[in-house]
Amino acid sequence: ASKNVVAAPPATKKPSSCTEAMRQENGKYAESGIYELYLPEFLHHAFYVYCLRDPNGGEPWTIIQRRQSNDTDFYRGWFEYEHGFGDLNANFFLGLDKIHALTNSRSHELWFQLEDFQNGKRVAKYESFAIGNAQDKYELSVLGQYSGTAGDSFTTHRGEKFTTKDSDNDKDASNCAVQYTGAWWYQKCHASNLNGLYFGGEFPKDQFAKGVVWQAWRGYYYSLKYVHMAIRPKYYY
């Protein structure tokens, strides 16, 4: 006798982006917050990210770095920058391994949100962004055209490897991460230093460029109040 076989429901596709993680059945996006993503071809484990609704109503963003207060030390070594540290709801760096996985899974764009202590807000966007793998020292391998209001303090870092205080991959005679108390895609050394010291506004001249600096906007002696780096898939199918 034939059995009535009930077909199993199709396996739910696990989300690989904030767009997939936040999209609801009604087509709208859920609230910003922490979501779990899966990219098995790059990382063999799920990982958590902070997904942010787009302020203009577009596709959501994945925050890969955020500074908003002085309660987290960002002057850290290679291992921590590779794997990530901090609190996803506050100050954190997602991890170079995860940023590589995300930006190499499909084409992404990049958004810097920058705010000072005088309620000034600026934006820098780059139409494409990807970094290399561990063997490439997470080189800033892809960076597209700049647009925005902050001025361009990132294009000069294109093609540079990531440097931390214990892994010197920059083009300077010294270690730029040590010199500027941060970790970044330094060249000789920087036009932006968003993992620098959280001074909280203007800082002394003898601390040249060591703060949370975006040179094109507030110069080398001003440490910003809030910054984030966020990415999202450029073309969504």
Description:
It is a single chain. Strands 1, 2, 3, 4, 5, 6, 7, 8, 9 and 14 form a ten-stranded antiparallel sheet that branches. By secondary structure, this protein is an alpha+beta fold. The chain has a domain at 18-159 and 226-233: Gamma Fibrinogen, chain A, domain 1 (Gamma Fibrinogen, Chain A, domain 1), CATH 3.90.215.10. Strand 6 (108-115) and strand 7 (121-130) form a beta hairpin. The model has no long low-confidence stretch (mean pLDDT 95). The radius of gyration is 19 Å and the shape is globular. It contains five helices and 14 strands.
By CATH, the topology of one domain is: Gamma Fibrinogen, Chain A, domain 1
The percentage of residues in β strands lies in 25-35%
Q: CATH first level of one domain: which class?
A: Alpha Beta
- Secondary-structure element order, as H and E? HEEEHEEHEEEEHEEEHEE
Sheet with the most strands, sense and barrel status: 10 strands, antiparallel
CATH superfamily of one domain: Gamma Fibrinogen, chain A, domain 1
Principal-axis shape: globular
Number of helices: 5
Pfam families: Fibrinogen_C
InterPro entries: Fibrinogen-like_C, Fibrinogen_a/b/g_C_1, Fibrinogen_a/b/g_C_dom, Fibrinogen_C-term_domain, Fibrinogen_CS
GO molecular function: carbohydrate binding
Keywords: Disulfide bond
